[in-house]
Amino acid sequence: MKKIVTGLSLMMSFAIWGQKASGKTQNLVQYVYQTFGCDNKGYFNPAKYKKSEIDDTYKLLYKFSGLYFDSPMVFKLSGLEDIRKNKNTYLQKLEQQYQEKKKELYTLKVINLPVWKNLHQQAMQTFENEYQLTKEDITAFSDPSSLKNSKFYNTCREQIDAIAAPDKEKMYATWKNYAEASSKRNSNPQAVMANFNAKFNDPQKDDYALIDLISISFHNCANNSFRPAVDEEGTIYKTFDKIFTKLKMDCEEP
Q1: Of 2, 44, 104, 121, which residue is most buried, by most CB within 10 angstroms?
Q2: How many helices (H) and strands (E) does the chain have?
Q3: Count of C-beta atoms within a 10 Å radius of residue 239
């Protein structure tokens, strides 16, 4: 079942329906777009906005607002073996995605207002950082010492020094500290430490250490350093909706 929600801009009075409102709508341009669970029909003032600018602003907001690259996630020994064996293939695919998405993202012509210009600039910066981090992750599984040249070295020095250390004892100590810290945030800390101890006593513990330290500890450290804060209130999406003088939202019931 669906529900119908009708929204009006704050610039309009709720009393302008009728012949006057009909005249205003006739001077507006219809714009249909989809959001999270809703089909939206809005009307915008062509004297204020170009449809192409709204199109590109919509793309920025709904297409370029998350992860940009389909990258391999390594959490098991089989995944580690795969990424080492096919490192060059993964790097080539990454580069192809980078070039294709960069062309589209960088050429967006968003609405000429600070909120959208700033969001576009932020998206491009996040895009470049995610690309760099993904490339470093892929390379580090085969060559841990490569992280010494990481863009994120100053931010994630502790993790990188442990991963790239010629002294394995330093890597093991950091790995254990990471496991202990993770266990304290978990509802079942004993299970976390039991899992760590099983991997630590495994003949392939060096590989298990790299998986945890690169895929989780280093990756999360670097990733958190450039991701924008989560818009808990959905403010930027509401700002997009306000582009439209009149808006009808046809939404699925939760």
Answers
A1: 44
A2: 11, 4
A3: 15
Burial letters for 192-213: b for 16+ Cβ neighbours within 10 Å, e otherwise?
Answer: bbeebeebeeeeebebbbbbbb
* Residue whose pair of structure tokens reads 């009909």 in the numeric block: 22
Summarize pLDDT for 4-46 with one digit per residue, the tens. 444 433 333 333 333 344 445 668 999 999 998 899 999 999 9
Angle (CA) 230 233 235, round 5°: 90
Strands 29-35 and 246-252 come out as unpaired
| CA dist., res. 244 & res. 9, Å (int) | 7
For the chain, give every domain's residue range. Answer: 2-252
Say how far apart CA 160 and CA 138 lie, in whole Å.
14
Per-residue model confidence as pLDDT tens digits over 51-74: 999 999 999 999 998 889 988 889
| Dist. CA 112–CA 103, nearest whole Å | 20
Question: CA-to-CA distance for 233 and 231, rounded, in angstroms?
Answer: 6
Could you give the CA distance from residue 77 to residue 249 in angstroms, rounded to a whole number? 47
Contacts of 157 (CB under 8 A, 6+ apart): none
Single pTM value for the model: 0.85
Crossing angle for the helix pair 87-106 and 77-85, to the nearest 10 degrees: 80
Instruction: Transcribe 187-231 into DSSP letters.
Output: S-HHHHHHHHHHHHTSTTHHHHHHIIIIIIIIHHHHHHHHSPPP-
The token pair at 203 is: 């003949």
